Amino acid sequence: MQTADRPGLSDLTNLVSISATTAARNPQAVYGALRERWGFVAPVELEPGIHAWLVLGHQEICQVVRNEQLFSRDPNNWRLYAEGVVAPDSGLGPMMFPRDNAYFSDGDRHRRLRAPIDESLAGLDEHRMARFIRATCTDLIRRFGDQGTADLVSDYAAVVPMLTVAGLFGIDRDQGEQLRQGLIALFSSAAESQEPAQMVERILTNAMASRRAAPGDDLTTAFLRHANLRDDAEIQQSIVLMISAGYETTTSWIAQTLRLMLADARFAGRLRGGRLGLDDALDEVLWLDPPMSNMPARYALVDCTIGGMPVKRGDALILGLSAANNDPRVHTDDSWLEVGNRSHLAWSAGPHACPAQRAGRMITRIAVDTALHQLHDVELAIPAEEIVLLPSPWTRCPASLPVRFTPSGPVDQQTVRRAFR
Predict the structure, then answer these.
(1) Which Gene3D superfamilies would you find in this protein's record (predicted)?
(2) Which residues are CB-neighbours of 32 under 8 A, at least 6 positions away?
């Protein structure tokens, strides 16, 4: 079909749901079928009646994310949102409705709101952070280490990132767990999510008030002092962005890496003479199951053509990061040639590329390494093919990783306390 003959998004029917790409056991087969039918930009359904373009190609994603003049990050430019077609309580809201932070901003405003995040990450004391992460991991393992069984998602992978990132903002461990529960609710469309979601605001408001009264060596104090953040709403939303993004993506990276290390024969023997090690596993996950499989969104500011498809002003474009990593034009089928190759798009690209790549890798690497070393003889308690994924159009995080291991003896609590200093 010639480009001029192709119908617009609103005219298309019987489209594949974007969730089919994340729920499938072999997502690349779904992406491949979409490429076969449509090319490197495919129409998909986000929710019933809500359509978007899924950008599947490496060069097409780069074209979109590096051109702020044509493609906006601001959801106010999304036609279906502006016209009220998307329901106010839509599950798309947390990732595709406007918020007062850098993620949903363009141009000068984006650069102003992102600067405090970039500067805070650049100024991290990595040695201190590494000690905190190791101590956090050790303390979590202590809680279930004598049981011989655990769920390495709910007991571990979903907890380490939140406690770490919350700790950077001076939020204590108990409130960090409350914050995690509140953020789960915040990114839910359930009616009962309102009260726990409001808890997030209360925790952050209290943290900001506490640091105004008694400044500390933490990121809350740094954000309060930063001239680029003009009011409490911008400060609070910037903290929400940094904590929620760090929590969601790092949880997925930890869980997927643990799954790979425990289930794949190339890695499973790591402690028993396996061929490939932890850094190879970290990179393979970024290629095949990145923390964000499909990243929302860009919104076309003009009518244009991408990958031969007629994109109209106000159309939403979803970045198929996992699909682009497997783009046959840039990806080789030789797994050995891919070892050490970091030209993937797991962190996106352009002005909105993830600013926390180094910190995220540190958290993930320490978390996985600590679990593999401290849980003796650890192995999956179910066949790998029975691992269930959390339902999401955006990520492919395991819902649980049940494992068994040789129960440990008591942990020296003085050692744990010293590690937190």
Answers:
(1) Cytochrome P450 (1.10.630.10)
(2) none
Per-residue pLDDT at 178: 86
Instruction: State the pLDDT confidence band at 186, using cuts at 50, 70 and 90.
Output: low
Predicted confidence at residue 244, as pLDDT, reads 85
What is the model's pLDDT at position 3? 45
Residue at token pair 């077609």: 85
Angle between helices 160-168 and 126-144 (to 10 degrees): 140
The helix or strand, by DSSP H or E, that contains position 344, with its residue range, turns out to be: none
Distances (CA, A) of 8 to 67, 238, 246: 22, 36, 36
> Which is it for strands 309-311 and 294-300: parallel, antiparallel or unpaired?
unpaired
- Residue with the bigger pLDDT between 339 and 241: it is 241
Sort strands 149-151 and 402-404 into parallel, antiparallel or unpaired: antiparallel
b or e along 238-255 (b: 16 or more beta carbons within 10 Å of the residue's beta carbon)?
A: bbbbbbbbbbbbbbbbbb
Taking the CA atoms of the chain, what radius of gyration do you get in angstroms? 22
Assigned CATH class of 1-97+293-345: alpha beta
Higher model confidence: residue 336 or residue 204?
Answer: 204
* CATH 1.10.630.10 segments of the chain: 106-263+350-421
Single-letter amino acid, residue 378: V
Handedness of CA 47, 251, 66, 294 (dihedral sign): negative
> pTM of the entire structure?
0.89
Number of Cα atoms under 13 Å in the Cβ half of residue 9: 26
Q: What's the pLDDT tens digit per position in 34-48?
A: 999 999 999 999 999
The mean of the pLDDT values for the chain is 88
Contact 282, 344 (CB under 8 A): no
Domain(s) labelled CATH 3.30.43.20 in the chain stretch across 1-97+293-345
Distance CA 212, CA 210 (A): 5
What average pLDDT does range 360-387 have in this prediction? 95
Q: Which residue has the tokens 């502006």?
A: 82
Residue 320's φ and ψ, nearest 5 degrees, are -80, 75
153, two tokens: 């998602």
- The CATH class of the 106-263+350-421 domain is mainly alpha
> By the 8 A CB rule, do 238 and 267 touch?
no
- Give which of 86, 74, 76 is closest to 45, Cα–Cα: 86
Determine the Cα–Cα distance for residues 196 and 183; give it in Å rounded to an integer: 8
